[in-house]
## 1
Amino acid sequence: MKKSELKDYIKEQIIDVLSEATPEEVQTQADLNKELEKTADLMSKMDMKEEEEDAPEGDKKIQAKASKQDKIIQDFKRIEAQMKTHLELFKTSESPKNKETAKQMLKKLTPEYQAAKKAYDKLKNVKV
């Protein structure tokens, strides 16, 4: 079997497995959809609003601060993961072209990483 034939066969098998849904699964999903509709109707009848709208001013400030902190943490972790990925690519690449590309990406990410790390370290020292 050729490589292209094998790829096509694997794709077909994956699609077949993923597209199969038993009648029981379809019925379960339909029941869940009905329950979701009931919940939405009940919430609209009760005129429930999101907690943020009813939150006191102090809670909104705390939530905004936590949101900023979450963004700092997520940004730091994202850049850190990218740095690790490119470092691993640099270590494992055999071709000089791939090593150079990984090195350029590391150089590009270094200032971003340093700024994110500084903000993250500053955040770690602040108590909420």
Note: The chain has five helices and no strands.
## 2
Amino acid sequence: MLKWLLMAALFPAVLLAQPARPGLRPGPALWEGAWWNSPIVQNLDLSETQRKDIRGTVREYRGHLMELREAVQRADSDLETALGENPLDQHKANEAIEHLATARGEMTRTLSQMTLRLRTILTNEQWQELQRRQAQRRAIPFRGRGAGSTPPAARQQR
């Protein structure tokens, strides 16, 4: 569960701020939803204290992460706009690139800090089990709502 929260929050959360691509799971980042009901968390034997501490940590970071995701989305949009201008203003495009890199870096830093905090809540055995489950989940291709389906945005790109 926490591994999912931790790992899913690290890169997929950043990726959710970008246009959907084939094979990515659409939807909100795990830190935005009720992760404790997630199948990846079931049977980890989390104590009530662990659940409380995890909820508190996620609650503490959630608002800032949402702000950072919005900043990444704005920076990505600004870059797309700058690259679409005719004639191209290289200075403006480079500024947009730097802004996007900074926003993504801050998102990654904050997610990594949250992951570190969450890791301290789990036992080593729980952490290892979450890593194993996450690896299994990543190995399964996206199936969406039906076998062989692709995310809506990916269908639009075709």
Note: The radius of gyration is 18 Å.
## 3
Amino acid sequence: MPAAGERRHRASAACACDTGARKAAAVDPEIKAANRHRLRRIEGQIRGLQKMVEDDRYCPDIITQIASVQEALRGVARNLMRNHLRHCATKALRSGGKQESQAMYDELLELIYAHLR
């Protein structure tokens, strides 16, 4: 059974970035490179967290590192939102009909409320 967010998205009208395989309409190369770099750094931070837990490090130190990883992930999400707004949302709002535009507004609000706090 799909997650609640997946169910909600499927129920809405097609996103401008729906190209059959659910790929973005376009991806800025700078954003992609920044996200890949940031995700590799986060991967290292996660390995560091695993070692901290294995080594029974002081709990507040681990929690501080978890907060750092969460903020780094929020940075990736902000970059993805920036790309989505520049390409997918812009395409839907400029070239789409009323139903497609409304679906994009709904999708953006859902993303903001659910993920980008």
Note: The domain at 28-115 is CATH 1.20.58.1000 (Methane Monooxygenase Hydroxylase; Chain G, domain 1).
## 4
Amino acid sequence: MHHRILAHMPVQAIWVDEESGKRVKVEGTTENLGENSALVNLETLPPVGAEVKLRILAEDKAIIEVATEVIRVERDPSKPLAALTVLQNLKKWKAVAMEAAEAWVTAHWKLNYEEEWVN
């Protein structure tokens, strides 16, 4: 069984467009993080099979950067998603990315909980 964490953290995704050969850099947010994967909401979706450099950000700084591969895309105009599998540094991914996601959930759960009780 794989562990997934629902967290909306800022990301940057970078890949090379096959047709033009130009580098594409887009920003977005994570939908969830798994032990070896991420589902991300991006402004522009990379093609399935593309290798994407994924950076997870905290306070506008990259906390981790890994090579990933696009395994699926969902082209819903209101929420375009790319499913990415991590290709390298799995131990670091589990230690850094998963820990950051858990911290994000804890911080946002506390904020939401406190806001409800303030009213």
Note: The mean pLDDT is 90.
